Amino acid sequence: MSTETIKAVNEGDILWQPSADMVEGAQITHYIHWLRSEYDKSFDSYSDLHAWSVDKNGEFWDSIWRYFEIISDTPYTAVVQGEISRAAWFEGAKVNYAEHVLRAAKHGGDEPAILGLKEGGDITSMTWFELASNVRKLASSMRSMGIGSGDRVAAYLPNSPEAVIALLATVAIGAIWSSTAPEFGTGAVVDRLAQIAPKLIFVADGYRFNGNQHDRRQAVEEIIKALPSLEQVVLVPQLNLNVGSPNTQGKPSRRTFDELMQGEPVGENEFVFERVPHDHPLWVLYSSGTTGLPKAIMHSHVGMLVSHYVVNNLHLNLSTESRLFFYTTTGWMMFNSVVSALLCGSSIITYDGSPTYPSGAALWRLASETRATVFGASPTYIQVMDQMSVRPKDEFDLSALELILLSGSPAQPEHFAWFHDNVKSDLWVGSSSGGTDICGAIVGALPTLPVRAGRIQCPILGIDVHAFDSENRSVVDEVGELVIASPAPCMPLGFWNDERRDRYVSAYFKDIPGVWRHGDFIQISSDLSSNILGRSDSTLNRHGVRIGTAEIYRCVEKVDGVRDSLVVALERSPGHYTMELFIALMPGWIFDQYLVNAIKAALRSNCSPRHVPDVIHPVQAIPYTLSGKKMEVPVRRILQGEPVSKVASVDAMKDPRAIDEFVKFKV
After folding, report:
1. Burial 171-184 (b: 16+ CB within 10 A, else e)
2. What is the pLDDT of residue 91?
3. Hey, how many other C-beta atoms are within 10 angstroms of the C-beta on 203?
4. pLDDT grade, residue 570 (50/70/90)?
5. CATH number of the domain to which 269 belongs
6. What pLDDT digit, counting tens, does each position of 434-463 carry?
7. Residue limits of the Acetyl-coenzyme A synthetase N-terminal domain (predicted)?
8. Of 281, 288, 493, 513, which is most buried with the most CB atoms under 10 A?
9. In degrees to the nearest 10, what's the CA dihedral of 287, 291, 296, 302?
10. Phi/psi at 658 (nearest 5 deg)?
11. Cα–Cα distance measured from residue 76 to residue 454, given in angstroms and rounded to the nearest whole number
12. CATH number of the domain residue 414 falls in
């Protein structure tokens, strides 16, 4: 980042301290007082509270159930049972996630629940009463179309109020939600959705980005054709393109979103939420597809409920006075996370468009005009702001802003300082890390602790996080493997079509039996603050969105002239990340701009713009292990300056000479 726009700051410097009034008024303080009254528990520090939450996790999660007054048809028989890879939470309970979201309508009434903006348009507002009414109406229409508990409902929609309504309506009737973003190419969408065989899909005719309209009608038709399980298609117009007349007779039948919202309103007393068992899937999210098809990750209603209440209410301090904005797409778990803020009665802000159109300050204008109290983005967004010399505090009224939430990639000290220098001097800048696997945070923010430059404030309550060294010992003030050592309700139910749980156990528990290995490097300090130091596996992080290498390989290696490929993400300088693609050519082919353009075009069309690398290098060969795996992590470590002898075993390689060429590309 430019040193001219920010003051010098060192990692660990205290940049912000909460006021006494903020500490006293924080929702976690209220919870601590409640624990003293209801459980006769007293804690001298957050460290003591967190230790109790993991040492006595059954007692802790029972308190969360009671504190947030979870609605269930039946009482649970036990808080948690089983080993970490098969833990069952609140068995016997029957709950519905959407019911808890919409109970806030009883308190919110005419206050806005969703403020929405589409690039080039005006901000719209939907009250809590309107949201609840829209969800009941759509859910009832879906029921009349034959959609019910356990059916999968997919979406190919931008981040919009309609997408939020569709998610909540799906969940309200016990169906299982799964979404992808319209900038995804057909192959990336089908790779995901075909696994779950959806019965209904919501689709957009296109989306707007950077001043341009992107017509996705052809992609929609290709997706529908590739999903024979579909019985219903619901068009949610975004560009108002001509899509012909709806067809309610053929298979799949086609209707419009507006058609499903017609008719008489469905009263609150007329609608019945489908309360489902503890192990009923809420939604399916997808891993990044590093080693093959993206993994279809299932989370439960009850697990997400208690986990999201903890993160949103106790850690982010969200309330009925909050308005949360996070720049995301529906293809990232942050969309689900934003929707979860509704549980606290908070307003959410949806945005479909470029973060820098019509100017670099586009999102700050949105934050100002919606009176956002929370602004969320990836740290890479701050690099863009700095490069464009955007200084929000000189242009906008951001007096309502209380919290900056950084997530998606490791935040550097300079990222924290940028906000104090360019947005607001007295600002709580929180950073978090978690991911799709748990649809939440492992380490994150807290309103009662100081903010240190470049560090995440604390571990999340109930998450038994550690840094493990090479001997699988928990270490402090040392870099180690991020692990979770005991069960947490945010852990998945498992993967779709993995009844024996072989893939699920292999993904998280194979390397260190009995412990969840998350795939990040972390350093945890004695004060519980932490640093995430990037991936310990080969998953890429592109502008805050994880991308699997396998998706890139499947596309690149179909381009004429490309024999093989390998892609890595590098931090070329502090806070500056690049995605670099290495290709080996077919005999007789020449590496030139025509080939570079062809590769980029293929990735942009078949995957998404985020899959396009920053630079492409030609190499003679791609290094492989004897077991046939591309050596992504060793290559990345070499490019970061480590010697070949330290990161790669000659005896474990098919062709030891293949890796030597990468030394010349090191940072």
Report:
1. bbbbbbbbbbbbbb
2. 98
3. 25
4. confident
5. 3.40.50.980
6. 989 999 999 999 999 999 999 999 999 999
7. 46-100
8. 281
9. -60
10. -65, -30
11. 41
12. 3.40.50.12780
Domain end residue (candidates: 274, 301, 323): 274
Alpha-carbon distance 582 to 111, whole Å?
52
Tokens of 294: 């993206």
Pull the structure tokens for residue 455.
């560090």
Which domain does 474 fall in, by range? 14-96+285-535
Tokens 């009034």 correspond to 21
pLDDT band at 4 (very low <50, low <70, confident <90, very high): very low
**Local confidence band at 615 (pLDDT 50, 70, 90 cut-offs):** very high
Asked if pLDDT for residue 558 goes beyond 70, the answer is: yes
Count the neighbouring beta carbons within 10 Å of the beta carbon of residue 340: 25
Instruction: For the chain, give percent helix, strand, coil, nearest 5.
Output: 35, 25, 40
Task: Say whether the peptide bond before residue 492 is cis (omega within 30 degrees of 0).
Answer: no
pLDDT, tens digit (0-9, with 9 covering 90-100), for 504-535: 999 999 989 899 999 888 999 999 999 987 66
14-to-174, 393, 529 alpha-carbon distances in Å: 46, 22, 12
With H, G, I as helix, E, B as strand and everything else as coil, classify residue 529: coil
pLDDT value of residue 626: 53
> Are residue 556 and residue 490 in the same domain, yes or no?
no
> So what's the pLDDT on residue 637?
85
The span from the CA of 488 to the CA of 495, in Å, is 17
Question: 318 near 346, Cβ under 8 Å?
Answer: yes
Query: For tokens 């109790």, what's the residue?
Result: 52
438 and 519 part of one domain:
yes
* Residue bearing tokens 């699988």: 472
The residues that bridge with 532 in the sheet, in sequence order, are: 522
What is the percentage of the chain residues whose pLDDT exceeds 90? 75
Please enumerate in sequence order all residues whose Cβ is within 8 A of that of 262, keeping only pairs 6 or more positions apart, or say none: none
pLDDT at 328 over 80: yes
Quick one: tokens of 67?
A: 């504190």
> What total of structural domains would you count in the chain?
3
Q: Distance between CA 134 and CA 118 in Å, rounded?
A: 20
Mean per-residue pLDDT of the chain: 92
Distance CA(558)–CA(536), nearest Å, equals 28
Alpha-carbon torsion (195, 197, 201, 203), positive or negative: positive
Burial of 593 (0-12, 13-18, 19+ CB in 10 A): exposed
Peptide bond into 265 cis (omega under 30): no
Residues 388 and 484 both lie in one domain? yes
Residue in this structure with the two tokens 């999102």, named with its chain if needed: 363
CA distance 617 to 639: 13
**Residue 7 maps to a domain:** no
Number of neighbours of residue 249 by Cβ within 10 angstroms: 7
Name the token pair of 321. Answer: 């006075």
| End-to-end CA, the chain | 17
Phi-psi region of 74 (alpha: psi -120 to 50; beta: other; left: phi over 0): beta
CATH number of domain containing 579: 3.30.300.30
Q: Is residue 9 part of a domain?
A: no
The angle subtended at Cα 169 by Cα 111 and Cα 102, nearest 5°, is: 35
Q: Is the pLDDT of residue 245 over 60?
A: no
Quickly count helices (H) and strands (E) in the chain: 21, 36
Instruction: For residues 131 and 192, state if they share a domain.
Output: yes
3-class SS of residue 53: helix
Domain's final residue, options 535, 559, 582: 535
